[in-house]
């Protein structure tokens, strides 16, 4: 064989890889098992109750999203994203996501979702961790606000970059609903510490104040729900996602 020339088989292999790169995604290697003891939740959304806030409204908490290796990322303060140090306590609830439901386009023609141009404009990724890293850089320039830009906003941003489940409409409400409907509790103690403070506050308030306290507490919860619903679906760009 003349010097400087590659074997025909090598040339064909390289050609095939280049030609098929637009439709073949990167290999999705097997994930490690979920390991709550060592705080490893590969490709999971995770949740924990918020001090004080969850005592009054137990459906509200703090969320994060995990890398493929299991490390937790969470937006817990202005211009700051935690890595492997989940704020506000141990993980209580989680849901593992399927990477095969994500869109990892190598180019504009390689989208597996129906939102090609919109997805590209928003920001795409080649891997799960790449999407999380892009959202992390974006939120390192964001101010934290419990009502408009919080941990749910960060997770929604990640899911939109992944175009998870073919959707570009992930927001605070959608993330909360996914965790509430499909989330699994880590253990029995996680359930106890999530609802015991609320139960204690409710009982004490009823004993000391009576029904007006109960009505006021549930009115507070209703107002929070209405705020996030209106901010998400009625007032454009009010809530970050």
From TrEMBL:
UniProt-recorded name of the protein: REVERSION-TO-ETHYLENE SENSITIVITY1
Transmembrane segments: 190-211, 217-235
Phylogenetic placement of the source organism: Eukaryota, Viridiplantae, Streptophyta, Embryophyta, Tracheophyta
Tree of life domain: Eukaryota
A cellular component annotation (GO) from this entry: Golgi apparatus
InterPro entries in UniProt: TMEM222/RTE1
Keywords: Membrane, Transmembrane, Transmembrane helix
Pfam families in the record: RTE1
Claim: RNA-binding is one of the keywords in the record: no
Gene Ontology biological process: regulation of ethylene-activated signaling pathway; response to ethylene
């Amino acid at each position: 064989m003349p010097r400087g020339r590659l074997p025909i088989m090598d040339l064909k292999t390289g050609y095939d890889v280049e030609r098929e790169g637009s439709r073949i995604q990167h290999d999705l290697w097997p994930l490690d098992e979920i390991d709550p003891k060592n705080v490893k939740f590969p490709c999971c959304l995770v949740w924990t109750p918020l001090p004080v806030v969850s005592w009054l409204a137990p459906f509200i908490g703090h969320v994060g999203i995990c890398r493929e290796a299991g490390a937790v990322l969470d937006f817990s303060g202005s211009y700051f994203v935690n890595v492997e140090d989940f704020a506000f306590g141990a993980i209580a609830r989680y849901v593992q996501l399927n990477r095969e439901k994500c869109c990892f386009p190598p180019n504009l023609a390689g989208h597996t979702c129906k939102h090609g141009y919109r997805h590209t404009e928003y920001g795409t990724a080649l891997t799960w961790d790449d999407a999380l890293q892009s959202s992390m850089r974006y939120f390192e320039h964001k101010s934290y606000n419990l009502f408009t830009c919080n941990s749910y906003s960060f997770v929604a941003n990640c899911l939109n970059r992944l175009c998870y489940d073919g959707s570009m409409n992930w927001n605070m409400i959608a993330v909360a609903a996914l965790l509430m409907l499909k989330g699994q509790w880590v253990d029995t103690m996680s359930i106890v510490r999530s609802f015991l403070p609320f139960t204690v506050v409710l009982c004490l308030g009823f004993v000391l104040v009576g029904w007006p306290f109960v009505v006021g507490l549930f009115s507070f919860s209703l107002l929070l729900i209405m705020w996030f619903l209106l901010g998400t679906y009625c007032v454009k760009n009010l809530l970050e996602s």
